[in-house]
Amino acid sequence: MASQRKPVNKKKIAPAKSIRIGFVDYKDTAMLRKFISERGKIRARRVTGLSVQEQRMVATAIKNAREVALLPYASGSR
Fold this sequence. Notes:
CATH 4.10.640.10; 37% helix; ribonucleoprotein; Ribosomal_bS18; Ribosomal_bS18_sf; Small ribosomal subunit protein bS18; structural constituent of ribosome
């Protein structure tokens, strides 16, 4: 009988925790680029290690920065 192994959960270092962001500014593109992939997609919460509220703030800031053309939209071409 094969025993199933449980996955080991390793704690990720949250990028926002190292910066200690209380307020996310859409004009801070250097910080926001850490949360988008090479293709321009917003990284998932399980990847970034942010809390729900922080992920929402970052996502809103990225969308605002895209609207003002500070960050690129996700590229759809392959």
